[in-house]
């Protein structure tokens, strides 16, 4: 019994030491597909995604701090229609010929106790940078069962107005407010 208690204490001490240092996780582009949702002519909510995302998440759970840098290839937009993909990559919307990337760079992480609840930062779309708060709906860090490395996963949501990023074509018929949903997985490499 005493030996088991010592082993448990030693294991806890080792894992606490590991968590005490900031950990950097590389975003897994095969499990991270940011989505955007908007009201289309009052008929329905339309949801589309981007298929190419990269970046890093640095997390120091002891200090309750960290950073997030994300780059989304705007040319990877997937609406389910090649014709519509091309249309929203045009000048009226993402203008991917001039602005091929959408980026998010954090400035502050907000914690409620040990739980990450929000990430404040700057979102850049079409060359326009605005402050945005990503509300973290869920987050979990643990050993990845297949890759045998530490991993973190989260789901975050933000609401933005596309007119603030020079994409106001068809407002108000197509909603100005867009919901960004970002399911992300990242691996400690």
User: Can you write the helix and strand succession as a string?
Assistant: HEEEEEEHEEEEE
Q: What kind of sheet is the major sheet?
A: 8 strands, antiparallel, barrel
Examine the coordinates and then state which fold CATH places here, giving the name of the CATH topology: Lipocalin
Helix content: 10-25%
Number of helices: 2
According to CATH, the homologous superfamily is Lipid/polyisoprenoid-binding, YceI-like
Which architecture per CATH?
Beta Barrel
Detailed description of the structure:
The structure is a single chain. The protein is mainly beta and 189 residues long. The chain has one domain: Lipid/polyisoprenoid-binding, YceI-like (Lipocalin). The protein has 2 helices and 11 strands, in the order H-E-E-E-E-E-E-H-E-E-E-E-E. The chain has helices spanning 2-20, 82-88; strands spanning 23-27, 35-40, 44-50, 53-60, 65-73, 77-78, 101-112, 115-125, 128-143, 150-161, 177-187. It has an 8-stranded antiparallel beta barrel with strand order 1-4-5-7-8-9-10-11. The longest helix is centred in the N-terminal third of the chain and has 19 residues, at 2-20. It is globular, with a radius of gyration of 19 Å. Residues 1-19 have low confidence and may be disordered.
Record keyword descriptors for this entry.
2 helices; Lipocalin; single chain; 14% helix; eight-stranded antiparallel beta barrel; mainly beta; globular; 189 residues
């Amino acid at each position: 019994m005493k030996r088991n208690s010592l082993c448990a204490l030693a294991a806890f001490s080792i894992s606490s030491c590991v968590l005490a240092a900031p950990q950097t996780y590389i975003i897994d582009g095969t499990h991270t597909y940011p989505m955007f949702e908007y009201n289309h002519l009052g008929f329905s909510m339309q949801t589309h995604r981007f298929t190419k995302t990269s970046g890093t998440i640095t997390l120091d759970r002891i200090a309750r701090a960290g950073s997030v840098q994300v780059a989304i290839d705007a040319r990877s937009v997937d609406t389910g229609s090649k014709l519509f993909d091309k249309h929203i990559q045009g000048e009226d919307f993402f203008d991917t010929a001039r602005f091929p990337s959408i980026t998010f760079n954090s400035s502050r992480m907000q914690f409620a106790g040990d739980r990450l609840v929000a990430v404040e930062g700057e979102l850049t779309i079409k060359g326009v940078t605005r402050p945005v708060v990503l509300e973290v709906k869920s987050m979990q860090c643990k050993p990845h069962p297949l890759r045998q490395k530490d991993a973190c996963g989260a789901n975050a949501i933000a609401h933005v107005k596309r007119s603030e990023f020079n994409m106001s074509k068809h407002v108000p018929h197509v909603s100005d407010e867009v919901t960004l949903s970002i399911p992300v997985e990242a691996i400690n490499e």
